[in-house]
Design a protein that fits this description.
This protein is α/β, with parallel strands linked by helices. It is built from 25 helices and 20 strands.
Length: 753
């Protein structure tokens, strides 16, 4: 397959071939920008390399987007299509971000320990750091608070477009400066008032951390030389990363590599690239010579994003903040393979002098060392396509002298939060831990399943509400099916000679077979999970309609067939934790003495026995008091709606007079109840804010002033924003809305007493 390049001959992507039977899977390949048949080099054995995290801070939902996405794809390939996967993931523990963060954290902690308590000197130090920060990051020369206030006023508190120029980093820097300015003012007041304790110092340094850390690093960064300090920070965040992945039910890789463990191999690989004529040494660093590689010996640079190959800004971003190589390069677009380390930067020995690996060479070496000269499948976030993945491919092909190091490249789409791409560098992110406080790992995974893996995903409250609703659909179906089957087996009697499996059952079976076919086709079509999820919801809806016939008119076995198939697929998607038993649904009630984990009988029975005992005592008291029917029904409702759900037991009243007993995860019930209460509070707050607005002002808000240009004496709009009279129909509708607002506002005023 010939693929076009920017101002260069097309490069050829070769479709892999195999004599082994294939599954029929096609994948969207970022190299070809099209769907192509997936053919591993060695039968069903797949060598897979995935870019891991750079460990210097907490993992966020952007990471979750990447790792959950490829965990879903891994499970489909491994558990459904039965590929034999060898998954290698790296940890980048040598990187400029890690170096800078380590030094700043270390120096800030040391400064706080040395100062111990708030003092005039500490306040002045932070003030000096503040002036330096404002000059460097915001381009303003200030020397006192009055000048800062004037600067803030001139920039609209950092919000004027003339100031930000569309650069989100300026907004971030302004916020850091603003927080520091406020903290400095408070610190001077505390010093004057004699409040000079440890807490006051901690408050000052916490509020101005970004400002002070940068200042300390400039002054003392070169004094931080111990490797252990850098390694400790990376090790801490690596451990934290895997805690988050475990919480999200993301499978561990087959092989985990760390850059710090492969430095000798990196040095040897760089030497091989130099020997092949594609790299050069300059001032103790080594650079990749793009001009000597691109178009030579059949090589092609920037296969993923050919139009970006001359984008110097993006290439420089990939170099790291500590790089100062512009005068050492033959060409500005050349990128670093080995960085000569300066004081305050970790260093390893090499033929070119002490230094450390560049970012792009790290993955080339680790992947090649573990997987060999060819990789079947490479995955990562779309933001890494250029320069990282393009540079990584070029380096591998330069060192190995081949032309197709990776056969298939898969990139997960961006995650957007409130319409903006999530970015750690811009501090526009939600940590995974914070996300899990609001939603369960299953709900987050469902959100990702409902979106195409290589498309942008919007992480907003509306999309999460949809994911929660989908989860509820599955949960209700699983609990209903499990309860029906449990009751059927408890009450099962000998046949009375009546045929149960008739027309409705045959139609449901046909629908199930069609579901299996459609889900299979969807998963083979580049892992189309949104379509697969829609098809599963359709068979659930159809089965629910069948269940409406009533327990006496259904065949539980066809319901079981549907439930077991749906369970199988949601397990494939990772919606059930690994290691949970094989029961229907999310795996509840799978523990038992027959082959499962042994459990303490008393710990299971006692909570239910306590509910029954309390219920009996209350019924007895009511009976002795004369038998109030309303009190008895209230008591029954409490057991049904509160006591038993807290234990994971749901009593579902049916029209035939017989209740259906269901089981659910008590923690999920509590979480759902908490979410519902939070939503109710938000709705009440929103309703209250709306009610506070007088009806005369409701159409005069800033937003409404963009829609209307004239109003009558009662505040009712009469002309649109172009000065045209409103139609009678529209006036009537607006008058009705105002009337409803008047009632709401009057109720609010009455509530104030």
């Amino acid at each position: 397959m010939l693929l076009k390049g920017k101002g260069k001959p097309a490069f050829r992507w070769t479709q892999p071939k195999s004599t082994h039977p294939q599954t029929g899977l096609v994948v969207y390949n970022s190299i070809t920008k099209s769907k192509v048949p997936f053919v591993p080099k060695d039968g069903k054995r797949v060598n897979w390399y995935g870019c891991g995290p750079t460990v210097y801070d907490a993992s966020h939902m952007g990471h979750a987007r990447n790792y959950i996405t490829f965990d879903i794809i891994r499970r489909i390939m491994e558990d459904y299509l039965n590929y034999d996967l060898n998954v290698v993931i790296n940890i980048t523990d040598i990187d400029d971000k890690i170096i800078v963060r380590t030094r700043q954290k270390h120096l800030l902690q040391k400064y706080q320990e040395q100062q111990n308590v708030l003092s005039k000197q500490a306040a002045e130090d932070v003030e000096s750091a503040f002036f330096s920060f404002v000059k460097e990051k915001l381009g303003a020369l200030i020397s006192n608070v009055s000048e800062w206030n004037a600067f803030a006023l001139s920039t609209g508190n950092g919000k004027d477009q003339a100031f930000t120029k569309g650069d989100p980093k300026l907004t971030m820097y302004y916020s850091a400066a603003e927080a520091a300015a406020s903290a400095i003012e408070t610190a001077h007041e505390n010093v004057a008032a004699g409040k000079t304790g440890k807490e006051e110092l901690a408050a000052l340094l916490s509020a101005s951390e970004d400002v002070v850390a940068l200042w300390l690093d400039k002054k003392l960064g070169s004094t931080v030389t111990e490797h252990r300090i850098f390694r400790d920070l990376a090790a801490y965040w690596e451990k934290d990363f895997f805690k988050d992945m475990d919480a999200l039910n993301v499978r561990r890789p087959s092989v985990l590599t760390r850059v710090s463990e492969f430095v000798p191999e990196v040095v040897r690989f760089i030497q091989r690239i130099i020997d092949n004529g594609y790299a050069y040494e300059s001032k103790g660093s080594v650079f990749f010579d793009i001009a000597s590689f691109d178009g030579k010996k059949g090589h092609f640079y920037a296969k993923l994003e050919p139009t970006a190959k001359d984008n110097l800004r993006r290439q420089e971003d990939g170099e790291g903040s500590l790089s100062v190589h512009s005068l050492s390069k033959r060409n500005q677009n050349d990128f670093v393979l080995w960085k000569a380390s300066k004081p305050g930067e970790p260093a390893w020995p090499s033929p070119w002098g002490s230094g450390r690996p560049g970012w792009h060479i790290e993955c080339s070496v680790m992947a090649s060392e573990i997987l060999g000269p060819h990789v079947d499948l490479h995955t990562g976030g779309i933001d890494l396509a250029f320069p990282h993945h393009d540079d990584e491919m070029a380096l591998s092909e330069a060192g190995l002298e081949n032309h197709q190091w990776v056969n298939y490249f898969l990139h997960a789409g961006h995650l957007h939060i409130e319409g903006k791409k999530m970015s750690k560098s811009l501090k526009n992110f939600i940590t995974i831990k914070d996300a899990l406080k609001k939603n369960t790992a299953r709900q987050i995974r469902i959100l990702f399943l409902l979106s195409q893996w290589d498309s942008s995903l919007y992480y907003v409250s509306g999309s999460m509400d949809n994911a929660i609703a989908v989860e509820r659909t599955f949960s209700n179906f699983f609990t209903n099916a499990s309860a029906l089957l449990r009751e059927f087996r408890l009450r099962q009697e000998d046949s009375d000679g009546t045929r149960r499996f008739q027309g409705p059952e045959l139609k449901l079976m046909e629908a199930l077979n069609d579901t299996k076919r459609r889900v299979h086709e969807a998963l083979l079509d580049s892992f189309d999970t949104p379509k697969a999820m829609r098809v599963l919801q359709e068979i659930i809806a159809r089965t629910n309609i069948y269940l409406q016939r009533g327990r006496a008119s259904i065949d539980p076995q066809i319901v079981e067939s549907v439930a077991l198939y749906v369970t199988r697929i949601v397990r494939v998607f990772g919606l059930v934790n690994d290691g949970v038993g094989s029961s229907i649904g999310w795996g509840l009630g799978s523990v038992g003495s027959d082959g499962g984990a042994r459990v303490d009988r008393e710990s299971i029975v006692l909570p239910v026995a306590n509910v029954l005992s309390n219920f009996r005592d209350a019924v007895r008291d009511i009976a002795l008091a004369g038998g109030d029917k309303k009190a008895l029904l209230t008591l029954c409702d409490k057991v049904r709606d509160q006591d038993l759900p807290d234990l994971g037991i749901i009593i579902d009243d049916h029209g035939d007079g017989r209740a259906l007993v269901k089981f659910a995860d008590p923690e999920e019930i509590k979480h759902e109840r908490k979410q519902r209460k939070a939503k109710d509070r938000e709705e009440r707050r929103s309703q209250l804010l709306k009610a506070m607005t007088p009806p005369k002002d409701m159409f005069r808000t800033l937003e409404m002033c963009m829609l209307y240009s004239a109003w009558d004496e009662n505040g009712l709009p009469t002309r649109d924003n172009e000065g045209e009279h409103l139609s009678k129909r529209r006036l009537k509708r607006l008058a009705k809305e105002q009337e409803e607002q008047s009632k709401l506002h009057n109720e609010y005023l009455a509530s104030l007493g």
